[in-house]
Amino acid sequence: MKFGISYSTPYYGTDPDRLMAFAQHAEACGFESIYLPDHIALYPGAQVGALEMPSTLPFPDPLDCLSFVAAATRRILLGTGVLLLPYRHPVVLAKRLATIDVLSKGRMRLLTVGLGTLPREAAALGVDFAGRGRRADEAIDVLRLLWSGGADGVSYHGEFFSFDNLCVYPKPHETQQLPIHIGGSSRAAARRVGRRGDGYFPGGMLMPAERAAQLELARATAVEAGRDPSALEYTRWGSIVMPPERVAGFAAQGVTRIVVGATAADRAEQFDEMSAFSERFGLAAVDRAESDA
Hints:
This protein is 43% helix and 17% strand.
């Protein structure tokens, strides 16, 4: 099992020293990865499910934050949970992601994308809310095409994006593709995983039966698309106080990565929570053994 940690900028704040210290402590504790959330714009009355989001919550750009984290760390993988893909142009995004991956020497490897749930956020960015799923599908295809393209360029003509003989450099570090994980809590998201995703990171509010059904749908869709369902990573949200028995239960469900978040507001208490989790699962010892190998 792999373990990631989420840095919730809306609640932890945007102090750069705190973000740097958090990432460095997570790395020292042996966490595999650090995730940051995303919203481009909020508005009074914005709701995610039943939760109303104060319009003043700070959501700094997650990719800028991950670039900052990369410069302050040496091993921890960089992830988004989730990047709102329909609201970003894939040609620009291909450049930004590859640049972070190159500068971090191959650590921008846990990109997780989603569609977003706020209609007025989509409208402000000129995106048709009803069509954002199709737009995301095209964006994934464009990202992969651009990363794999050579000096002669690549061409694409779709519903939302169109270009001819385009070259985007640099390429990702020592590879032509970055993994793209799919986040979401719908069956449409599960089908997107099967058709295009390298991994599945479902939302945390699903009931167990629906969660299992969506995972099976993702795997079945992968088979229909001629893809290997066993190659899909399966990431789940967990609790920083979860016991080993709970982790074993996740593993039995096919989970390959658990992402937790510190619950304390105080920085010292957050660090204590992270250290206790690391000790409970021997993360630092595993990290040292892998480094020595």
